[in-house]
Write a structure and sequence with these properties.
Blueprint: H1 18-42, E1 46-47, H2 62-71, E2 76-82, H3 102-115, E3 121-128, H4 135-142, E4 149-152, H5 174-190, E5 195-196, H6 208-225, E6 229-232, H7 233-237, H8 245-254, E7 257-261, H9 273-285, E8 289-290
Parallel strand pairs: 1-2, 2-3, 3-4, 4-5, 6-7, 7-8
Amino acid sequence: MKKQIQFPTNKKQFPTNKKTALLFLSNCVIVFIIRLQYSEVFRLNYNFHTHTYLCGHASGIPEEYIQRAIRCGIQYLGFSDHAPMLIGGNEKIATRMKASEIEGYVAELKRLREKYKDQIDLSIGLEIEYYPSFFSETLKRIKEFDIEYLILGQHFSREERSGYQYVTAPIADEDDFKEHVAQVVEGIHSKVFTYVAHPDVFHFTGDQALYRQEMRKICVASRECNVPLEINMLGIRDHRNYPTPLFWEMAGEEKCPVTFGFDAHDVQNVYDEVSLMQAKELVRKFDLQYIGMPKLILL
């Protein structure tokens, strides 16, 4: 909770002695600077990484997210629930909406956008994997539903073929790791994604030199294509394997554009001050090129 800084409200509270008055004024300046710094650390007016109950592992209805976002000072809110498998892939995975639900998802968000149009700017997106084997056809289908933007969230290995894994699980297989990196890099170069969500999500337990070699490719692609990398606050608040310091050290070295995402799976975390403070500390520690609100790449 923010500390409330009290300023004088009547003449009796102002000092009359000149020396005391000067000290008082200097303290006021210091307090003013602290308040600016405090605001810069804790306030954020955007979030484009927001889920709904349709993905099967989030709670709350979209309107509740919007109402909390407004209360917390969010001016730009984007919903980016896990995209359904429209072409190929594994429709059975219970961590994304079903193909039959996407039309209703868009319709409900359009209704809420109209309802709250004077209070918040609402965008309709999806978080989706980049699977080269069928991404082109998937993109064509997505565009049929008035989806406005995409964020790249590469959650599974092997394009969900036989033997695939959720990549936050410890994985030592070098081929799976290299394929994951290659897919993310190719996704960045496609230039259809607004940003890369949790780019350090892959929990590689193999050789650290190989980790540096491969993950730097993501950083280089981000810089060359000017596609931001997201510091993911779900990873922070759930104490996951990401954000990974080694990755963000390289992101700092490569001067990649960096943005923030709350990755909200419940209403409360559509704005999360505690995780935001830690994300800001990563920016400071690794001298990251924080760009603020990302520019939406419209489909």
